[in-house]
Design brief:
Length: 505
């Protein structure tokens, strides 16, 4: 039987010197990622080459979220965060690494006070002055290098950072599950010191977390979508309040939603205190999406996202908005057939169909809603407001969700299928508007957000609610749980989008 205590003591011996902890050796090289430097650099380059659809926005990045599993499972998703950062050409930045300890329970955030972390790509120096400033607040932070020794969540981020930066320093921070109040104190002090160093240096937070462990594929997609929507609200207090409710849903084998939930919360608070006003979702996938190795009966979710300061005028004027787009008639038929086949297979056997294509139109990541009608009446409607899958996969996923996951209706039965009519709506990117006057009747779909509540109406709803005041009042009240006149409140955020919709004949 393996004595893990001996292994841990060996690891301590490997990284300790007479003066204490100095150079932390890599502990998951050769397991989570290649130990050969050339192979490792080549693998990351391959991931970068496959990154598509990064947002073309003018913004100031404050930090990113990146997963920390073995590269074969999460490396492609992680590449989205790091390729996003690489666009900004920072020179010698300070990277504040925030992750959750998998091996120890911590009463305070634990800092590493040694000289460096080592990886197959070389040595990464600790920013000693920054660490010293944090440790001056001993009621909040503590010097605890031991807990960093076996921890992989920060280590796996380093080769990606070494790939995009010739020179940088790090501030490694490990946390445990803390409540909102303590997390706020941590973030408040962290943001204060970041502001101090930001006068002469670029500071970027890298938050290390995976998502749901270990439900089946379709459950992971549904639960992770809920968590991502909560994240996008960018309301830290709401996040700490609502995330446990998602975790406590009755989902088989669901162990957690964000394994680094406090790391995410602290990163969210810190970036908000630094002026962050938007979270860009860069990529979502899970281990079930990995060819050959992916087991869809038991998956782990992965997310890449960015905390940014987005200039509001740029949202309305300079962001690219796809107001006019279409899907070829051939692919409309393919997508409708995929939706019907996906529903039929899932309600019959519980299995998700697989489909392969090299058609660029079907491979483009898109936000999709699938709507089901039975004898002219709504029978289910589920979708996402941001692109996270290739179009064909998004249609498959949302068709299954519309048939089985809409809480307003019981799951569609096999006997019902012949009476079901399918409609697919492909969304353009959301665009912020600052007055209801900018909303075009019978053209725009609308998203309303206020106080942590969100509601969405597709443009098709104008057919039932043709007047703008009626449309917006119903959206606020029936979909977002807000007062009917909330759309007139300057604090309420309004977003518009267009759709390309098509349905079965």
């Amino acid at each position: 039987m393996v004595d893990f205590r001996l292994i841990f003591l060996f690891l301590i011996f490997m990284v300790s010197e007479t003066s204490g902890f100095s150079k932390r050796q890599p502990v998951v090289a050769g397991q989570f990622y290649p130990s050969n430097s050339q192979e490792l650099r080549s693998l990351i380059g391959t991931y970068f080459d496959k990154v598509t659809s990064l947002p073309e926005i003018k913004c100031k990045p404050l930090g990113v979220i990146a997963p920390h599993a073995g590269y074969i499972f999460s490396g492609q998703v992680a590449a989205y965060s790091y390729k996003f950062l690489s666009k900004f050409k920072f020179t010698n930045p300070i990277i504040v690494l925030v992750g959750e300890s998998h091996n120890f329970y911590l009463k305070k955030p634990a800092l590493f006070t040694g000289n460096s972390f080592l990886t197959p790509l070389g040595e990464v120096k600790i920013n000693q002055e920054f660490v010293k400033d944090l440790l001056a607040n001993s009621e909040i932070f503590e010097n605890n290098p031991e807990v960093h020794i076996p921890e992989h969540s920060l280590e796996v981020q380093l080769p990606f950072l070494q790939y995009i930066y010739k020179e940088f320093t790090i501030v490694p921070i490990l946390v445990s599950k803390f409540d909102y109040e303590f997390s706020y104190k941590i973030a408040e002090k962290l943001s204060e010191i970041i502001k101090k160093y930001s006068k002469t240096k670029t500071i970027i937070i890298v938050c290390s977390t995976d998502m749901s462990h270990y439900p089946k594929y379709e459950d992971a997609v549904r639960i992770d979508n809920k968590a991502i929507e909560l994240l996008k609200i960018y309301d830290p207090k709401k996040y700490f309040l609502e995330l446990p409710k998602i975790e406590h849903e009755k989902v088989k084998n669901l162990h957690c939603v964000f394994c680094g939930e406090t790391a995410v919360g602290i990163s969210m608070i810190t970036t908000k205190l630094l002026g962050g006003n938007n979270i860009e979702i860069l990529k979502y996938a899970n281990s079930g999406d990995v060819p050959i190795y992916g087991d869809k009966s038991r998956v782990v979710g992965y997310l890449s996202a960015a905390f940014v300061i987005k200039d509001e005028p740029l949202e309305g004027k300079q962001m690219k908005e796809q107001t006019e787009f279409s899907i070829s008639e051939k692919n409309q038929k393919i997508l409708l057939n995929l939706a019907r086949s996906a529903i039929k297979e899932y309600v019959s056997s519980g299995k998700v169909i697989e489909y392969k294509t090299d058609d660029k139109e079907l491979l483009e990541p898109r936000a999709v809603f699938v709507t089901l009608h039975r004898k002219g009446e709504l029978r289910g409607c589920i979708g996402t407001t941001f692109p996270q899958y290739p179009l064909y996969q998004a249609v498959i996923n949302m068709a299954i969700e519309a048939a089985t996951g809409d809480p307003r209706f019981p799951p569609v039965s096999v006997d019902e299928l012949e009476h079901i009519k399918i409609e697919i709506s492909i969304l353009s990117p959301l665009k912020r508007v600052f007055s209801h006057k900018d909303i075009k009747e019978h053209i725009h779909g609308v998203v309303v957000r206020s106080g942590g509540r969100t509601g969405l109406f597709l443009p098709q709803v104008w057919e039932q609610l043709p007047k703008k005041e009626q449309f917006l009042s119903h959206l606020c009240f029936s979909k977002a749980g807000l007062p009917p006149n909330a759309w007139q409140d300057p604090k309420t955020e309004l977003y518009v989008f267009t759709v390309f919709a098509f349905e079965e004949k």
